[in-house]
């Protein structure tokens, strides 16, 4: 019986992966591995919790595969990843909106009519709707994580930890109630935090208008103010100017305008105006103007406080008119200015974004829909100086996509603005990948941090644990036990920490003994997911050591948009509570796009379900593709792309693996019995071993730095180029030799150990394929307890370099030779001469050190390029002639009266002088030329370089040199090429007949005299290359027959397999 299981060259990865999954389940590999490693040094991980109310898409596959790559690597590198559990994000607007769609509800009043209890019960069911699909996808793509112990943000223990954290913030004065202008979604009737708002920003086309405000007491005189939100003009109560900005009073036709001097030409480019006066902004302060749209009325007590000019620091002249329309109800800066300057407050809009009844022309109309009607009215009243539509950044709800509005309301806030310096300091302790995020996208967001609007006027979420008494006492509850201490009755049996249950119990004020009332909010769901760093442990009520001894977290990774989401909330909460960073390494991912670079969307119809890809092509090719480019960049994805990856990389890997198994099984050699020192092996073996150990260094270093694409590129280069295209190609005769010599054994053990090492290196990247190869190459060799030790490749230690086996000089010499071979092939391609046609000579022009390196491998270069002779030279002068054509249009302005002399000198450069000039130009981007009137420095821009190679040669460059291949084809060379083509056809027939590499054949042929003469001349060579025992002319009925045409010559070949 063969020592190793037979391996075909074709691999169907989905079947292999399904079998491996069954093996892992049967042997409980994951759980055994966790048990074995539990006492090792811990590597702390935190899973970013998805919401399972929608099916997972390709972007989620990338996320899970990337996490698995680094966690498998750390496990094999001697760490115990802790905790290695999943998580589910359960609360918030995404869930509510999905349930609203299911129930056909469109507003908060409709939810209230439906019933909060019933609605929240539906939310609870919805969030776990697709858990099985998520778990199946997670398992199928090879992400080893314990989903049975996943933390769930809607469970009472989790919410209790959230409450504890809010109580801590309350005690420190960081959780306050305030009246602020906050981003709000009118459709959801809910406030949005700054990070939620920033996720919904996008470019739109909006009105861009300059409006005339009538100056009181000055007929036909106006202040000009610019806005992109016409609907807010109804709430205008002030105009802001810059204290030291220079303003002008201009006359244009029959009207007079005030605006900033720096903005006049932008508003009136025709310059059809007269400047009457210049004044500083402070001189305009307290001037009065008439209400623009007089539907919203000021209260009597504020009647004289509105419609006046005030000074503000935020006014600039970068856009608009230098006079800022101010509506305190709808702008944070406007609101703060109103408080400072005593401006009144007009709020004619409901929380649902519709105008109140008092705005009679547009009552009940949505604000954005009203824009066009307001513009129509302003045009009718001749109140617009400019009236355009421009691109503008606007806010949209991050979940329902409705246009958002800033809206003044009461809200509970976390005073993050007071922690700006702290959070900037903790951010400095984080390793961001890519690094530019630290002070770029993420750092910029932190620089402009604002107070966190925590409270939400919604239903499904962690209740805000704040109760208020009519006596003025306020209590923040930090635990369920504390909650009970404020009650006179036990909690109901069906009680849970959600609406409406939380509002059905009574808490009593410890000061006046009256019933207290809870603030009727839930909290921002982003706070809940950000609390996962401790809430997953039910900290501080349980697992105090698990949290405190394993914080901060070593590694997190999610998509780039989490710089405005989870990455921020984790850091904000950890800074506020512990004055520490939540995590030490943060790897970000770009989005997955379709093959055309377009974001996948159900509406467009370009969504690719990941299951279709891994069921047809395999999960490992998906993983390898994702890891092969910088994961933080957008990634194009299609079945065709993944199929290309499978064909190029996996077919190559499998061919090498199959080649080894087929040949070692024939000789029935147990690799464990081969003892051979590296220094006693062939140079080719030593080179491969050295390259392998250098590869280990590269892969490890890049995985440690979260540069998976660089590690994957090194592995790809080694497997495809070094191992398959060079080592195997150059070693075939060693494996196929009849005698089991020391050299043959050396080749077997070198390839065996290389494949086993590659299994381990590749295991975090492609866990299924590496496991399949490992099971055959390693586990199969053992029995009993030894077999249990080799249960899985993922139990192995990640390979470490063997420094004494690294030979940089040998690597450089062989690599230089390979580069010469590649250049030689390129030179052949330029003149369409195939490698099977032998050529007389190859000339290599390079430095003396490179020549010495390449001369070590002359035979290899000759064989690979099929040339009879190799000549080395140090100078290009014998192979290339240079001349230079002066560019007089550039020479003239540069050298003026000396240009003619310089031009003549350039034209006269010939021979060695021209070569020297060309070399200096390559090395220094300039050369010096001598003329009768002096020396001059010539740059590449001054000349046109003309080069011509020696006639009869084709050339190509390689790193550090150039090759020239003689293109003359003699009859003898043509005949040898014909023989090589015949051999190639026979090899193709062997492959199509699915013959083993070592199976002998009888070969029959039919062809003209030229073919017959060629075969008879080269008969022994053909026999060796095709494993033919006999070669005869004629036709036989049995066997495999094919007709071929080689350079217009017809030949019929028949192969008859011989049983070995």
Descriptive labels:
Isoleucyl-tRNA Synthetase, Domain 1; Isoleucyl-tRNA Synthetase, domain 2; six-stranded mixed β-sheet; 1060 residues; four-stranded antiparallel β-sheet; alpha/beta; 40% helix; globular; Signal recognition particle alu RNA binding heterodimer, srp9/1
List the topology elements.
Blueprint: H1 13-27, H2 29-37, E1 41-44, H3 58-76, E2 79-82, E3 85-88, H4 93-103, H5 108-114, H6 116-127, H7 131-140, E4 146-152, H8 156-171, E5 175-185, E6 190-191, H9 194-199, E7 201-214, E8 221-227, E9 238-241, E10 246-252, E11 255-260, H10 264-267, E12 274-280, E13 308-311, E14 323-326, H11 332-341, H12 367-380, E15 384-395, E16 405-414, H13 420-427, E17 431-433, H14 441-447, E18 452-453, E19 455-456, E20 466-468, E21 474-476, H15 480-485, E22 507-508, E23 515-518, E24 522-523, H16 525-530, H17 532-535, H18 544-548, E25 556-559, H19 566-578, E26 585-589, E27 592-593, H20 610-616, H21 619-627, E28 635-636, H22 639-667, H23 683-704, H24 708-736, H25 742-762, H26 767-777, H27 784-789, H28 808-830, E29 839-846, H29 848-855, H30 858-865, E30 867-873, E31 880-886, H31 888-895, H32 899-907, H33 911-924, E32 926-931, E33 934-939, E34 943-949, E35 953-958, E36 961-966, H34 971-992, E37 1001-1006, H35 1009-1017, H36 1019-1026, E38 1028-1033, E39 1040-1046, E40 1049-1057
Parallel strand pairs: 1-2, 3-4, 8-11, 9-13, 17-26, 25-26, 27-28, 29-30, 37-38
Antiparallel strand pairs: 5-6, 5-16, 7-8, 7-15, 9-14, 10-11, 10-12, 16-18, 19-24, 20-21, 20-23, 22-23, 29-36, 31-34, 32-33, 35-36, 37-40, 39-40
């Amino acid at each position: 019986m063969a020592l190793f299981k037979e391996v075909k060259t074709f691999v169907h990865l989905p079947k292999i992966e399904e079998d491996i999954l069954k093996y892992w389940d049967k042997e409980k590999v994951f759980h055994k591995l966790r048990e074995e490693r539990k006492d090792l040094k811990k590597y702390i991980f935190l899973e970013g919790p998805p919401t399972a109310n929608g099916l997972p898409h390709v972007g989620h596959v990338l996320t899970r595969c990337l996490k698995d790559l680094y966690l498998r690597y750390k496990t094999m590198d001697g760490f115990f990843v802790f905790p290695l559990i999943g998580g589910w994000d359960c609360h918030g607007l995404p869930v509510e909106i999905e349930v609203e769609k299911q129930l056909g509800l469109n507003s908060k009043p409709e939810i209230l009519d439906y019933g909060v209890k019933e609605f929240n019960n539906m939310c609870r069911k919805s969030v776990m709707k697709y858990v099985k699909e998520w778990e199946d996808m997670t398992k199928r793509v090879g992400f080893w994580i314990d989903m049975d112990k996943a933390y769930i943000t809607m469970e009472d223990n989790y919410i209790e930890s959230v409450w504890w954290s809010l109580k801590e913030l309350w005690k420190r004065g960081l959780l306050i109630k305030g009246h602020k202008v906050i981003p709000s979604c009118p459709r959801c009737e809910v406030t949005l935090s700054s990070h939620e708002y920033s996720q919904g920003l996008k470019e739109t086309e909006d009105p861009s208008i300059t409006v005339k405000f009538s100056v009181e007491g000055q007929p036909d005189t106006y202040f000009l103010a610019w806005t992109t939100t016409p609907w807010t003009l109804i709430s205008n109560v002030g105009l802001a100017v810059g204290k030291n900005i220079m303003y002008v009073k201009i006359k244009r036709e029959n009207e007079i305008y005030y605006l900033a001097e720096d903005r006049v030409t932008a508003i009136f480019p025709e310059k059809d105006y007269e400047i009457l006066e210049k004044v500083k902004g402070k001189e305009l302060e307290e001037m009065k103007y008439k209400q623009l749209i007089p539907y919203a009325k000021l209260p009597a007590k504020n009647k004289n406080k509105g419609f006046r000019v005030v000074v503000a620091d935020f006014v600039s002249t970068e856009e608009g008119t230098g006079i800022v329309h101010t509506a305190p109800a709808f702008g944070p800066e406007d609101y703060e200015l109103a408080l400072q300057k005593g401006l009144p407050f007009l709020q004619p809009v409901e929380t649902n974004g519709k105008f109140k009844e008092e705005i009679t022309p547009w009552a009940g109309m949505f604000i954005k829909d009203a824009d066009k009607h307001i513009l129509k009215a302003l045009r009718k009243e001749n109140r617009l100086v400019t009236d355009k539509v421009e691109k503008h950044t606007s806010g949209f709800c991050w979940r329902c996509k409705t246009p958002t509005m800033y809206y003044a309301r009461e809200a509970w806030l976390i005073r993050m603005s007071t922690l700006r310096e702290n959070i900037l300091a903790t951010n400095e302790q984080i390793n961001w990948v890519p690094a530019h995020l630290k002070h770029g996208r993420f750092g910029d967001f932190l620089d402009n941090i604002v107070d966190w609007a925590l409270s939400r006027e919604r239903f499904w979420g962690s209740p805000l644990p704040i109760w208020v008494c009519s006596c003025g006492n306020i209590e923040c509850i930090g635990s369920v036990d504390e909650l009970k201490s404020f009650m006179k009755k036990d909690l109901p049996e069906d009680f849970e920490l959600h609406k409406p249950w939380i509002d059905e119990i009574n808490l009593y004020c410890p000061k006046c003994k009256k019933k207290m009332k809870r603030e009727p909010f839930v909290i921002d769901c982003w706070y809940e997911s950000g609390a996962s760093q401790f809430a997953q442990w039910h900290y501080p009520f349980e697992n105090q050591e698990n949290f405190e001894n394993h914080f901060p977290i070593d590694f997190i990774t999610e998509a780039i948009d989490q710089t405005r989401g989870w990455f921020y909330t984790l850091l904000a909460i950890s800074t506020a509570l512990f004055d520490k960073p939540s995590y030490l390494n943060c790897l970000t991912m770009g989005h997955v796009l379709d093959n055309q670079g377009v974001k996948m969307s159900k509406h467009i119809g370009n969504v690719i379900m990941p299951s279709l890809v891994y069921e047809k092509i395999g999960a490992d090719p998906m993983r390898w593709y994702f890891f092969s480019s910088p994961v933080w960049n957008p990634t194009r994805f299609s079945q065709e792309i993944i199929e290309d990856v499978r064909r190029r990389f996996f077919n190559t890997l499998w061919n090498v693996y199959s080649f080894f198994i087929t040949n070692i099984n024939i000789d029935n050699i147990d690799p464990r019995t081969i003892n051979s020192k590296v220094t006693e092996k062939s140079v080719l073996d030593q080179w491969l071993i050295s390259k392998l150990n250098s590869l280990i260094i590269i892969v490890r270093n890049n995985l440690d730095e979260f540069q998976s694409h660089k590690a994957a590129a090194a592995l790809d280069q080694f497997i495809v180029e070094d191992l398959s295209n060079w080592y195997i190609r150059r070693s075939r005769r060693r494996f196929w030799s009849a005698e089991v010599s020391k050299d043959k054994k050396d080749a077997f053990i070198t390839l065996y150990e290389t494949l086993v090492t590659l299994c381990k290196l590749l295991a975090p990247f492609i866990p299924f394929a590496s496991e399949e190869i490992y099971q055959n190459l390693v586990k199969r060799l053992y029995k009993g307890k030894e077999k249990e030790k080799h249960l899985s490749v993922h139990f192995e230690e990640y390979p470490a370099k063997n420094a004494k086996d690294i030979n940089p000089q040998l690597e450089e010499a062989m690599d230089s030779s390979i580069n010469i071979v590649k250049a030689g092939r390129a030179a052949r391609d330029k003149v369409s001469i195939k490698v099977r046609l032998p050529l007389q000579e190859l000339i290599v022009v390079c430095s003396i050190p490179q020549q010495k390196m390449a001369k070590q491998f002359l035979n290899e270069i000759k064989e690979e390029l099929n040339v009879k002779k190799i000549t080395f030279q140090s100078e290009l002068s014998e192979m290339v002639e240079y001349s230079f054509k002066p560019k007089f249009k550039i020479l003239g302005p540069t050298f003026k009266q000396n240009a003619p002399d310089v031009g003549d000198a350039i034209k006269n450069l010939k021979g060695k002088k021209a070569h020297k000039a060309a070399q200096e130009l390559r090395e220094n981007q300039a050369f010096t030329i001598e003329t009768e009137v002096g020396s001059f420095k010539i740059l590449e821009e001054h000349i046109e370089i003309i080069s011509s190679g020696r006639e009869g040669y084709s050339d190509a460059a390689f790193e550090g040199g150039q090759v020239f291949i003689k293109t003359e084809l003699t009859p003898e060379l043509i005949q040898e090429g014909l023989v090589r083509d015949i051999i190639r056809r026979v090899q193709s027939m062997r492959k199509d007949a699915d013959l083993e590499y070592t199976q002998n054949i009888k070969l029959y042929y039919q062809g003209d005299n030229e073919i017959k003469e060629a075969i008879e001349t080269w008969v022994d060579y053909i026999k060796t290359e095709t494993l033919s025992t006999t070669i005869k002319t004629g036709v036989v009925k049995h066997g495999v027959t094919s007709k071929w045409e080689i350079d217009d010559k017809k030949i019929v070949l028949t192969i008859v397999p011989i049983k070995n």
